[in-house]
Amino acid sequence: MEAQHLGSILANVRRHWGVEYVVLTGGEPMIQEEIPQLTEGLKKLGLHITIETSGTQYAPVKCDLMSISPKLANSTPVEREGGRWAKQHDRLRLQKSTLKKLMKDYEYQLKFVVQAPEDMDEIRKLVEDLRARKNRVVLMPEGTDPAVLHERSLWLIEICKRENYRFTPRLHIDLYGNRRGI
Question: What angle do CA 52, 24, 3 make, to 5 degrees?
Fold first, then answer.
């Protein structure tokens, strides 16, 4: 991201007076070389910054909340392109040293996308390995179909209540359906 491009992004943000919060997401924002400069500029505008990341990359950024979504085994793309990326995905999806550094350096939440109750074994183990506080663990049902999300939400909410985790719905799916750009 060139300085001129960064300047145009910040100028565009300034046009939205009254905005207090910014979420950097999409793909993996932490791999963008200029993310430290972008967050510095956003912070100078007085904005609350959340970064949504898989936790596989570290960068010295300014942010108020690091929303870390480690990829679980359920995310391995075994069916896409004949499983072409499955081994690489499994090798790279969890970078525990990076996760620990992000958790140490920033206010954080760990957000897990849950497909089935069996995912909880992996989540519990990772939460324990990372020594994460339960009140910073957020569980979200996986899916893009409102009916599937509703069904998964029912049992996932019960798990959250029982294990003292937080729950978040996929509200954008309920409101707008499975559309890009929302």
Answer: 140
> Which residues contact residue 168 at a Cβ distance below 8 angstroms, ignoring those fewer than 6 apart?
111, 138, 139, 140
Structure tokens belonging to residue 41: 């500029």
Place of tokens 């074994």: 121
Interatomic CA distance for residues 114 and 108, integer angstroms? 19
Length of the chain: 182
pTM: 0.86
Q: How many CB atoms lie within 10 A of CB 73?
A: 14
Cα(49)–Cα(2) distance, rounded to whole angstroms? Answer: 21
Beta bridge partners of 138: 111, 166
Strand order in the sheet with 166-167: 21-24, 48-53, 65-68, 108-114, 137-141, 166-167
Task: List the pLDDT tens digit at each of the 182 positions of the chain.
Answer: 555 678 888 888 888 878 899 999 988 999 998 999 999 999 999 999 999 999 999 999 999 999 999 988 776 555 666 655 566 656 676 889 999 999 999 999 999 999 999 999 999 999 999 999 999 999 999 998 888 999 999 999 999 999 999 999 998 888 888 877 66
